[in-house]
Amino acid sequence: MTAAPLRTFWAWLCNDDRYDSLSAPDKGAIDWLRSIPFWLIHLACLGAVWTGVSRAALLFAVASYFTRMFFITAFYHRYFAHRSYRASRLVRLVFAVLGCTAGQRGPLWWAAHHRLHHQQSDTPSDPHSPAHRGVVFAHALWFLTRENFSSPKQYVKDWRRYPELVMLERYDWVPFVLFGVFCYAMGEWFGPAHGTSGAQSLVWGFFISTTALYHATYTINSLAHMFGSRRFDTNDNSRNNLWLALLTLGEGWHNNHHRYPASARQGFYWWEVDVSYWLLRLLSACALIRELRPVPASVLADIPSSGRTRR
Description:
Blueprint lengths: L2 H11 L10 H4 L8 H9 L3 H4 L3 H27 L4 E2 L1 H12 L6 H13 L10 H4 L1 H7 L21 H8 L2 H18 L7 H21 L23 H6 L6 H6 L15 H11 L3 E2 L6 H4 L11
Antiparallel strand pairs: 1-2
Protein backbone atom coordinates (compact mmCIF):
# COMPACT_ATOMS: atom_id res chain seq x y z
CA MET A 1 0.00 0.00 0.00
CA THR A 2 1.49 3.36 -1.06
CA ALA A 3 1.86 6.37 1.23
CA ALA A 4 -1.26 8.20 0.00
CA PRO A 5 -3.68 5.27 0.57
CA LEU A 6 -2.05 4.66 3.96
CA ARG A 7 -2.63 8.27 4.95
CA THR A 8 -6.23 8.04 3.77
CA PHE A 9 -6.80 4.81 5.69
CA TRP A 10 -5.28 6.26 8.85
CA ALA A 11 -7.38 9.41 8.48
CA TRP A 12 -10.48 7.25 8.30
CA LEU A 13 -9.49 5.39 11.45
CA CYS A 14 -9.00 8.73 13.20
CA ASN A 15 -12.46 9.97 12.13
CA ASP A 16 -11.08 12.92 10.21
CA ASP A 17 -13.17 15.91 9.12
CA ARG A 18 -12.22 15.88 5.44
CA TYR A 19 -15.88 15.93 4.40
CA ASP A 20 -16.51 19.31 6.04
CA SER A 21 -15.08 21.15 3.01
CA LEU A 22 -17.11 19.34 0.34
CA SER A 23 -19.85 20.99 -1.70
CA ALA A 24 -23.49 20.39 -0.72
CA PRO A 25 -24.26 17.74 -3.40
CA ASP A 26 -21.11 15.80 -2.50
CA LYS A 27 -21.87 15.98 1.21
CA GLY A 28 -25.32 14.49 0.72
CA ALA A 29 -24.03 11.46 -1.18
CA ILE A 30 -23.53 8.10 0.48
CA ASP A 31 -19.89 7.10 0.79
CA TRP A 32 -20.24 3.47 -0.22
CA LEU A 33 -16.56 2.70 0.28
CA ARG A 34 -16.46 4.04 3.80
CA SER A 35 -19.68 2.22 4.67
CA ILE A 36 -18.18 -1.19 3.84
CA PRO A 37 -17.67 -2.14 7.54
CA PHE A 38 -21.37 -1.53 8.19
CA TRP A 39 -22.40 -3.88 5.39
CA LEU A 40 -19.77 -6.47 6.32
CA ILE A 41 -21.21 -6.72 9.83
CA HIS A 42 -24.56 -7.60 8.27
CA LEU A 43 -22.96 -10.06 5.86
CA ALA A 44 -21.04 -11.76 8.67
CA CYS A 45 -24.35 -12.81 10.22
CA LEU A 46 -24.50 -15.46 7.51
CA GLY A 47 -21.65 -17.14 9.34
CA ALA A 48 -24.35 -18.79 11.44
CA VAL A 49 -24.89 -21.13 8.48
CA TRP A 50 -21.46 -22.62 9.19
CA THR A 51 -21.23 -22.22 12.97
CA GLY A 52 -24.78 -23.27 13.73
CA VAL A 53 -26.48 -22.17 16.93
CA SER A 54 -26.58 -23.37 20.49
CA ARG A 55 -28.55 -22.36 23.53
CA ALA A 56 -25.45 -20.76 25.03
CA ALA A 57 -24.73 -18.74 21.87
CA LEU A 58 -28.34 -17.57 21.66
CA LEU A 59 -28.39 -16.47 25.31
CA PHE A 60 -25.05 -14.72 24.80
CA ALA A 61 -26.49 -12.84 21.80
CA VAL A 62 -29.53 -11.72 23.79
CA ALA A 63 -27.37 -10.58 26.72
CA SER A 64 -25.02 -8.75 24.35
CA TYR A 65 -27.97 -7.03 22.68
CA PHE A 66 -29.72 -5.78 25.82
CA THR A 67 -26.52 -4.81 27.64
CA ARG A 68 -25.35 -2.61 24.78
CA MET A 69 -28.87 -1.29 24.22
CA PHE A 70 -28.69 0.00 27.78
CA PHE A 71 -25.32 1.60 27.07
CA ILE A 72 -26.86 3.47 24.11
CA THR A 73 -30.13 4.49 25.73
CA ALA A 74 -28.87 5.35 29.21
CA PHE A 75 -25.38 6.66 28.42
CA TYR A 76 -25.25 7.96 24.85
CA HIS A 77 -28.81 9.22 24.73
CA ARG A 78 -29.96 10.25 28.19
CA TYR A 79 -26.57 11.33 29.47
CA PHE A 80 -24.39 12.60 26.62
CA ALA A 81 -27.20 13.92 24.42
CA HIS A 82 -29.50 15.31 27.14
CA ARG A 83 -27.49 15.46 30.39
CA SER A 84 -30.47 14.07 32.27
CA TYR A 85 -28.33 13.14 35.29
CA ARG A 86 -24.86 13.80 36.62
CA ALA A 87 -21.78 11.60 36.89
CA SER A 88 -18.14 12.01 37.86
CA ARG A 89 -15.52 12.49 35.20
CA LEU A 90 -14.19 8.95 35.61
CA VAL A 91 -17.64 7.37 35.48
CA ARG A 92 -18.44 9.51 32.43
CA LEU A 93 -15.39 8.14 30.61
CA VAL A 94 -16.36 4.57 31.49
CA PHE A 95 -19.86 5.25 30.15
CA ALA A 96 -18.36 6.61 26.93
CA VAL A 97 -16.11 3.58 26.40
CA LEU A 98 -18.96 1.15 27.11
CA GLY A 99 -21.18 3.01 24.64
CA CYS A 100 -18.55 2.60 21.93
CA THR A 101 -18.93 -1.19 22.17
CA ALA A 102 -22.30 -0.83 20.41
CA GLY A 103 -20.58 0.25 17.19
CA GLN A 104 -22.64 3.43 16.79
CA ARG A 105 -19.69 5.81 16.62
CA GLY A 106 -18.48 7.91 19.55
CA PRO A 107 -20.58 9.65 22.22
CA LEU A 108 -19.87 13.14 20.86
CA TRP A 109 -20.88 12.19 17.31
CA TRP A 110 -24.01 10.50 18.64
CA ALA A 111 -24.95 13.39 20.93
CA ALA A 112 -24.27 16.08 18.32
CA HIS A 113 -26.53 14.54 15.70
CA HIS A 114 -29.22 13.79 18.23
CA ARG A 115 -29.24 17.35 19.52
CA LEU A 116 -29.51 18.55 15.92
CA HIS A 117 -32.44 16.17 15.46
CA HIS A 118 -34.29 17.69 18.42
CA GLN A 119 -33.64 21.23 17.23
CA GLN A 120 -34.86 20.51 13.69
CA SER A 121 -37.16 17.55 14.30
CA ASP A 122 -39.14 16.51 11.21
CA THR A 123 -38.06 19.56 9.22
CA PRO A 124 -35.92 19.36 6.06
CA SER A 125 -32.86 20.05 8.28
CA ASP A 126 -33.51 16.99 10.44
CA PRO A 127 -30.75 14.47 9.59
CA HIS A 128 -33.17 11.53 9.78
CA SER A 129 -36.80 12.51 9.28
CA PRO A 130 -38.92 9.89 7.45
CA ALA A 131 -41.27 12.70 6.46
CA HIS A 132 -38.71 14.28 4.13
CA ARG A 133 -36.25 11.69 2.79
CA GLY A 134 -38.23 8.50 3.33
CA VAL A 135 -38.28 5.75 5.93
CA VAL A 136 -35.31 3.78 4.56
CA PHE A 137 -33.02 6.82 4.56
CA ALA A 138 -34.19 7.86 8.04
CA HIS A 139 -33.73 4.33 9.32
CA ALA A 140 -30.29 3.29 8.10
CA LEU A 141 -28.78 5.44 5.34
CA TRP A 142 -28.53 8.95 6.75
CA PHE A 143 -25.39 8.25 8.80
CA LEU A 144 -23.66 6.78 5.74
CA THR A 145 -23.71 10.12 3.93
CA ARG A 146 -20.57 12.25 3.82
CA GLU A 147 -22.22 15.21 5.52
CA ASN A 148 -23.20 13.12 8.53
CA PHE A 149 -19.89 11.32 8.95
CA SER A 150 -18.41 14.30 10.77
CA SER A 151 -19.87 15.68 13.98
CA PRO A 152 -21.58 19.08 13.99
CA LYS A 153 -19.22 20.24 16.71
CA GLN A 154 -21.23 23.32 17.63
CA TYR A 155 -23.76 21.03 19.30
CA VAL A 156 -21.28 19.41 21.70
CA LYS A 157 -19.11 22.31 22.84
CA ASP A 158 -19.87 21.27 26.43
CA TRP A 159 -18.30 17.83 25.95
CA ARG A 160 -15.41 18.90 23.74
CA ARG A 161 -13.83 20.60 26.75
CA TYR A 162 -12.74 17.17 27.95
CA PRO A 163 -9.64 15.88 26.08
CA GLU A 164 -10.29 12.25 27.02
CA LEU A 165 -13.66 12.35 25.25
CA VAL A 166 -12.16 14.03 22.19
CA MET A 167 -9.44 11.37 22.05
CA LEU A 168 -11.96 8.55 22.41
CA GLU A 169 -13.98 10.08 19.60
CA ARG A 170 -10.98 9.76 17.27
CA TYR A 171 -10.66 6.05 18.00
CA ASP A 172 -14.24 5.08 18.84
CA TRP A 173 -13.86 1.87 16.83
CA VAL A 174 -11.30 0.41 19.23
CA PRO A 175 -13.74 -0.58 22.05
CA PHE A 176 -16.06 -2.02 19.40
CA VAL A 177 -13.33 -4.22 17.93
CA LEU A 178 -12.18 -5.25 21.40
CA PHE A 179 -15.73 -6.30 22.22
CA GLY A 180 -15.64 -8.59 19.19
CA VAL A 181 -12.40 -10.08 20.49
CA PHE A 182 -14.07 -10.55 23.88
CA CYS A 183 -16.98 -12.42 22.28
CA TYR A 184 -14.59 -14.80 20.53
CA ALA A 185 -12.52 -15.30 23.67
CA MET A 186 -15.61 -16.07 25.76
CA GLY A 187 -16.54 -18.81 23.33
CA GLU A 188 -13.03 -20.25 23.37
CA TRP A 189 -12.64 -20.17 27.15
CA PHE A 190 -16.08 -21.21 28.34
CA GLY A 191 -17.76 -22.45 25.18
CA PRO A 192 -16.75 -26.13 25.12
CA ALA A 193 -18.46 -26.75 28.44
CA HIS A 194 -21.68 -25.18 27.13
CA GLY A 195 -21.81 -26.54 23.60
CA THR A 196 -20.49 -23.48 21.78
CA SER A 197 -17.18 -22.22 20.37
CA GLY A 198 -15.24 -19.03 19.71
CA ALA A 199 -16.50 -18.73 16.13
CA GLN A 200 -20.11 -19.36 17.16
CA SER A 201 -19.90 -16.85 20.01
CA LEU A 202 -18.40 -14.27 17.65
CA VAL A 203 -21.15 -14.71 15.06
CA TRP A 204 -24.05 -14.64 17.54
CA GLY A 205 -22.70 -12.49 20.36
CA PHE A 206 -21.08 -9.91 18.11
CA PHE A 207 -22.29 -9.84 14.51
CA ILE A 208 -25.93 -10.94 14.87
CA SER A 209 -26.36 -9.11 18.17
CA THR A 210 -24.84 -5.91 16.74
CA THR A 211 -27.00 -6.05 13.61
CA ALA A 212 -30.14 -6.49 15.72
CA LEU A 213 -28.98 -3.67 18.00
CA TYR A 214 -28.44 -1.38 15.03
CA HIS A 215 -31.89 -1.80 13.58
CA ALA A 216 -33.71 -1.74 16.91
CA THR A 217 -32.03 1.58 17.71
CA TYR A 218 -32.84 2.95 14.27
CA THR A 219 -36.57 2.25 14.69
CA ILE A 220 -36.73 5.27 17.00
CA ASN A 221 -35.55 7.51 14.15
CA SER A 222 -37.95 5.95 11.64
CA LEU A 223 -40.91 4.00 13.05
CA ALA A 224 -41.31 6.09 16.23
CA HIS A 225 -42.05 9.06 13.98
CA MET A 226 -44.67 7.11 12.04
CA PHE A 227 -46.57 4.62 14.21
CA GLY A 228 -48.11 5.00 17.67
CA SER A 229 -50.09 7.46 19.75
CA ARG A 230 -49.49 11.09 20.62
CA ARG A 231 -50.08 12.19 24.20
CA PHE A 232 -48.56 15.62 23.63
CA ASP A 233 -49.06 18.02 20.75
CA THR A 234 -45.36 18.49 19.94
CA ASN A 235 -43.99 20.26 16.86
CA ASP A 236 -42.95 17.01 15.19
CA ASN A 237 -44.29 13.57 14.34
CA SER A 238 -43.02 11.72 17.42
CA ARG A 239 -45.13 8.80 18.67
CA ASN A 240 -45.38 6.65 21.78
CA ASN A 241 -45.09 2.97 20.92
CA LEU A 242 -45.14 0.18 23.53
CA TRP A 243 -43.55 -2.42 21.23
CA LEU A 244 -40.63 -0.16 20.42
CA ALA A 245 -40.28 0.66 24.11
CA LEU A 246 -39.93 -3.04 24.92
CA LEU A 247 -37.42 -3.49 22.10
CA THR A 248 -35.29 -0.51 23.17
CA LEU A 249 -35.58 -0.59 26.97
CA GLY A 250 -37.86 2.45 27.09
CA GLU A 251 -36.97 4.61 24.10
CA GLY A 252 -40.30 3.92 22.43
CA TRP A 253 -42.06 6.53 24.57
CA HIS A 254 -40.83 8.95 21.99
CA ASN A 255 -43.63 11.51 22.10
CA ASN A 256 -43.09 11.81 25.84
CA HIS A 257 -39.39 12.32 25.18
CA HIS A 258 -39.92 15.05 22.60
CA ARG A 259 -42.23 16.86 25.00
CA TYR A 260 -39.54 16.96 27.70
CA PRO A 261 -36.14 15.62 26.51
CA ALA A 262 -34.27 16.55 29.69
CA SER A 263 -35.93 13.91 31.86
CA ALA A 264 -34.00 10.77 32.82
CA ARG A 265 -37.21 8.80 32.32
CA GLN A 266 -39.17 8.48 29.10
CA GLY A 267 -42.00 6.34 30.41
CA PHE A 268 -43.71 9.12 32.31
CA TYR A 269 -46.04 6.78 34.24
CA TRP A 270 -45.50 3.49 36.06
CA TRP A 271 -47.36 1.52 33.38
CA GLU A 272 -45.01 2.78 30.66
CA VAL A 273 -42.18 0.25 30.72
CA ASP A 274 -38.83 2.05 30.84
CA VAL A 275 -36.14 -0.46 31.79
CA SER A 276 -33.31 2.01 31.17
CA TYR A 277 -34.75 4.37 33.77
CA TRP A 278 -35.15 1.57 36.29
CA LEU A 279 -31.50 0.62 35.81
CA LEU A 280 -30.46 4.25 36.12
CA ARG A 281 -32.29 4.34 39.44
CA LEU A 282 -30.20 1.34 40.48
CA LEU A 283 -26.97 3.09 39.45
CA SER A 284 -28.11 6.11 41.44
CA ALA A 285 -28.77 3.94 44.50
CA CYS A 286 -25.20 2.65 44.14
CA ALA A 287 -23.95 6.28 44.09
CA LEU A 288 -22.44 5.89 40.60
CA ILE A 289 -24.66 8.66 39.24
CA ARG A 290 -26.74 11.37 40.88
CA GLU A 291 -29.43 14.00 40.37
CA LEU A 292 -31.67 12.17 37.90
CA ARG A 293 -33.87 14.83 36.37
CA PRO A 294 -37.59 14.13 36.86
CA VAL A 295 -40.58 15.01 34.69
CA PRO A 296 -41.94 18.36 35.94
CA ALA A 297 -45.51 18.41 37.21
CA SER A 298 -46.26 21.15 34.67
CA VAL A 299 -45.43 18.74 31.84
CA LEU A 300 -47.64 16.01 33.24
CA ALA A 301 -50.45 18.55 33.56
CA ASP A 302 -50.24 19.21 29.81
CA ILE A 303 -52.40 16.19 28.97
CA PRO A 304 -55.97 16.33 27.62
CA SER A 305 -58.54 15.47 30.29
CA SER A 306 -60.42 13.31 27.79
CA GLY A 307 -57.79 10.54 28.00
CA ARG A 308 -54.22 9.52 28.40
CA THR A 309 -53.34 9.62 24.73
CA ARG A 310 -54.48 11.23 21.52
CA ARG A 311 -53.68 10.30 17.97
